[in-house]
């Protein structure tokens, strides 16, 4: 028999300042689930498809772009891991921002991330539906999106272990595909793959050299690569519902470096070494399909379509999960409507339903109002991940001093070279904001996200003042 409760009111602890109470969620994720979520969480559909346009802009220097942005992401993950291991919470960085900066910051970071995930669910559903209609022409896209939404909404409504099991197998397939691609690529580069000759460095130094489009091309590639890393934060949200939250977060953060280096930087290096960056198929088919086709791998396009479909479905599943947990955590801290935070059998079912409906609403808007309302939504989420990273860095900067003073034993994971690398990460984020303002293609996204962030911050501050006055 399921027990239904409302999310608890905020509470305080005596060790590290005010720590908002979390909703009574279950701990149904096993260590193998969390490990694979951490491993597969870095592999999104953007890596398989979206990286093609980045290569077309940056040329071989895309390897440098992914390495630089990957270094920034590793710093962010290290900071988040330090806070998450010290205080595991399903609200993750929103909880940390509230403890470090104030309730308005937790409100802003949490609801902006919820908005990002819900819109992303719709985008991923549309992408998955396009693949299905390519295989089954004549079937309506919206029907496929609805089917996927019902499946993953149902999965997340039932129990957290269902989410974990889906993500385990999704991640296993994505990791297997990337590892196989890298293996084939290394053999081809070495010239030992049957039917291929070693390309040498001709594709890296020819056709304009390593930086064929100069610094502007590198900047475009850098911006594209930064946003390809979005989604790494889910593992710290999921850790709060795992059997061993602290150990799980610590392991995930410590292995982030080699995962980013191998999956992103490594695969980009293989692509630009084996294929000329000017090859139109890189952007049209996607870099992985184009590379496998060039190597004569049979049915490469269909194989990668299956992998991309899995990546999209995995992202849908993870985003419905992440958005529902973030919403439940916000409500538990008095930062949202109470009905949204009701917990049944350890699952925030109302939040799951609302997040799914919001995501499907975005899909319908893509058909009804594609040129205005839907584009407005897309522009607003354009730089949210950078805003979240900014809150993570500032929170870690403030909380680290407090933890060293009040609870040093909780610092299982420590940020490297604190506070210097934290400041370096903040400078890197500021640089990305400046580059976005310079580029015409990203300027509107920056301003739209800025407007949303300011509106949420103002609302959060007003709520904070009212609660303080009461």
From TrEMBL:
Its main location: membrane. PROSITE patterns: AMINO_ACID_PERMEASE_1. InterPro entries: AA-permease/SLC12A_dom (IPR004841), Amino_acid_permease_CS (IPR004840). Residues 7-24 have a biased composition (Low complexity). Residues 1-24 are annotated as: Disordered. The chain crosses the membrane at residues 34-57, 63-80, 101-122, 142-160, 172-193, 218-240, 260-277, 297-316, 350-368, 374-399, 420-438, 444-462. Keywords: Amino-acid transport, Membrane, Transmembrane, Transmembrane helix, Transport. It is a multi-pass membrane protein. Residues 33-445 form the Amino acid permease/ SLC12A domain. This is Amino acid permease. It comes from Streptomyces pyxinae.
């Amino acid at each position: 028999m399921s027990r239904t409760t409302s999310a608890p009111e905020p509470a305080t602890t005596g060790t590290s300042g005010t720590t908002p109470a979390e909703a009574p969620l279950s701990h149904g994720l096993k260590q193998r689930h969390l490990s694979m979520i951490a491993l597969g969480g870095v592999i999104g559909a953007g890596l398989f498809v979206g990286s093609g346009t980045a290569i077309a802009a940056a040329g071989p220097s895309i390897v440098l772009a992914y390495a630089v942005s990957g270094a920034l992401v590793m710093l962010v993950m290290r900071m988040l891991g330090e806070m998450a291991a010290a205080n595991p919470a399903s609200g993750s960085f929103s909880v940390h921002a509230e403890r470090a900066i104030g309730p308005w910051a937790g409100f802003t970071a949490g609801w902006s991330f919820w908005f990002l995930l819900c819109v992303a669910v719709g985008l991923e559903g549309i992408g998955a539906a396009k693949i299905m209609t390519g295989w089954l022409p004549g079937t309506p896209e919206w029907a496929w999106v609805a089917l996927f939404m019902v499946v993953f909404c149902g999965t997340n409504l039932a129990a957290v272990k269902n989410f974990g099991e889906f993500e385990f197998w999704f991640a296993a397939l994505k990791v297997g595909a990337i590892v196989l691609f890298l293996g084939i690529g290394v053999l081809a580069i070495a010239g030992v793959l049957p039917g291929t000759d070693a390309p040498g460095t001709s594709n890296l130094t020819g056709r304009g050299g390593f930086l064929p489009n100069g610094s502007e091309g590198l900047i475009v590639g850098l911006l594209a690569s930064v946003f390809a890393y979005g989604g790494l934060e889910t593992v710290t949200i999921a850790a709060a519902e795992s059997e061993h939250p602290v150990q799980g977060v610590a392991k995930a953060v410590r292995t982030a470096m080699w995962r980013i280096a191998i999956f992103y930087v490594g695969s980009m290096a293989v692509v630009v070494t084996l294929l000329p960056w000017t090859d139109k198929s890189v952007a049209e088919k996607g870099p992985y399909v184009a590379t496998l086709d060039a190597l004569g791998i049979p049915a490469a396009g269909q194989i990668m379509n299956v992998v991309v479909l899995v990546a999209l479905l995995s992202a849908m599943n993870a985003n419905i999960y992440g958005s529902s947990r973030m919403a439940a955590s916000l409500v538990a801290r008095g930062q949202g409507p109470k009905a949204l935070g009701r917990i049944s059998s350890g699952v925030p079912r109302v939040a799951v339903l609302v997040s799914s409906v919001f995501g499907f609403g975005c899909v319908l808007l893509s058909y009804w109002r594609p040129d205005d309302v839907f584009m407005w939504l897309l522009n607003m989420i354009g730089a949210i991940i950078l805003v979240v990273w900014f809150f993570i860095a500032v929170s870690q900067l403030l909380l680290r001093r407090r933890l060293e003073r009040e609870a040093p034993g909780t610092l299982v994971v420590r940020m490297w070279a604190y506070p210097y690398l934290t400041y370096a990460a903040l400078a890197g984020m500021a640089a990305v904001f400046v580059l976005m303002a310079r580029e015409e293609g990203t300027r509107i996204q920056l301003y739209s996200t800025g407007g949303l962030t300011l509106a949420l911050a103002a609302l959060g501050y007003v709520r904070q003042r009212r609660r303080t006055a009461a």
